[in-house]
Amino acid sequence: MAQQRILFVDDEPQLLGGLRRMLWDRRGDWEMHFAEGGVAALALLEHTPVDLVVSDVRMPGMDGPEFLEAVRRRWPGTVRMILSGHSDREFVYRSIKPAHQYLSKPCTPQELKATIDRVLGLRAIFTDERLRETVARIDSLPVLPAVFAELTEELRSPNASFKTLGAILDKDIGLAAGLLKLVNSSFFGMPRRIASTEQAVTLLGLETVRALVLSHSLFSRFDSRRYPGFGLSGLWDHSLGVARLARNLAGLEGAGKPVEDVCFMAGLVHDAGKLVLADLFEEEYSRVLDIARSRNITTWQAEMEILGVSHAEIGAYLLGLWGFEESVVLGVARHHQPGLAGPDAPLAVPVVHAANALEHALVVINHQYAEHPLDTVALTALGLGPRLAAWREAGRSLLAHGDSPDE
Q1: DSSP 93-117
Q2: Looking at residue 179, what is its pLDDT?
Q3: Which of 94, 112, 113 is nearest to 103 (CA)?
Q4: Tens digit of pLDDT for each residue in 364-394?
Q5: Positive or negative, the Cα torsion across 201, 350, 272, 54?
Q6: Distance between CA atoms of 37 and 256, rounded to whole angstroms?
Q7: Is the pLDDT higher at 3 or at 136?
Q8: Of 129, 150, 296, 344, which is least surrounded by CB within 10 A?
């Protein structure tokens, strides 16, 4: 297996030397390059393509955001990461736009290595060259929403508080209002009305709020007027329904709250790739929707026919670039084909697949679309065949209670 190539960029030679020493033990796995500043890095990239670039933010002449934006335009398939000790938060979060991930200094060697391994490990999960080609065709990959990144960064602080997290959410008025509307719907069944984002974070838990923030950001960037038959509100309701059911199914299996949160997040963003593909491949995706309706096949089957890749893989690949854990990534990637995840698949794979199929069967948004049958063969191979009757009943029970997120 060929070494994976990484370029580290900083204007201070001492820091680059420190990175060399810190990562010396990975020289057998990675082909590492080091450049002093953005201009030198771009010159190196002209003749030495890399899989991942890690850049500082504040550099004279060409700063990190400017450098990463140039990389995005010229080498769109290259993963872009910021590693910075700069303390001006407003500057930092403006700089997030051209990056897939952001890490702050001081960063331990273990944390840096784990983050790089996780991102580069996506190539082991997504081996299909068609996916790489599709991603390379995307001129501007959606970037991690700044509010989401700021929430994640605050969590890494030993002094993180619900008050601070609530203040971060309040920076986006539309997001804060949408979050409180959803929290106060019967979807979450809160015993009292929630009046602040701080309360929402406290009562829902951070992972649930992070999932909601990410989904809101992806949906808000999508212009549904370009696709009159797309049904954006229906897709949002479906995503919430799948998230809720996936969490319940995980609870039925005695998974515990951390795994339930993973299943909820994977369910909530399982169709995010549809928004990405429709937004960035408008003409092709209009054909996808037409074929799905006229031939009564699923959207993901039409995507494979027209684009050679489906929303499941695209969505999962981006989530992986953004630093989501592998269980969420696999839950999204294999929600139509759980058998491809193998015998050691995390619980998110079968429960998101089942939740998606059951939600489609119980809540028919458009009768023109094909059914999404349960892959009983794959679920049985994972040892969950005897649980399907209980899972179906759980879906019917949730639907009967009428927990609409829009109430």
Answers
A1: HHHTTT-SEEEESS--HHHHHHHHH
A2: 77
A3: 112
A4: 555 555 667 889 999 999 999 999 999 999 8
A5: positive
A6: 47
A7: 3
A8: 344
List beta partners, residue 8. Answer: 34, 54
**Residue found under tokens 């398939």:** 77
Three-state DSSP class for residue 19: helix
Residue type at position 29: D
- For residue 52, list its beta bridge partners: 6, 79
Joined together, the tokens standing for residue 327 give 């269980």
Q: What share of the chain is helix, strand, coil (3-state, %, to 5)?
A: 60, 5, 35
Pairing of strands 4-10, 52-55: parallel
Least confident of 211-220, 352-361, 364-373: 364-373
- Residue 67: exposure state from Cβ atoms within 10 A (0-12, 13-18, ≥19): buried
Model confidence, pTM: 0.79
CA 316 to chain centre: 6
Two tokens at 313?
Answer: 């893989």
Residue 400's alpha-carbon distances to 348, 356, 375, 394, in angstroms, are: 24, 17, 24, 10
